[in-house]
Amino acid sequence: MRTTAGLALVVPLAACTASGGIACEAGPGWRTVTVAPEPDRAARVRLELPVEWRRVDTSACEWQVTAYGPPGTDACDVAGYPVTLHEADVFDSARQAGLITSADGRWSGHVVAGGTVVAVGGTDRATTRRVLASARRAADPDPEVARWRGRDTVDGASGVTAVLPHDPRAAVEVHPGRPDCAVERTAVRREPGRGWSAGLCRDRVVTVTAPTPALVQVVRETVRGW
Question: What is the mean pLDDT of the segment spanning 124-144?
Answer without folding.
Answer: 94
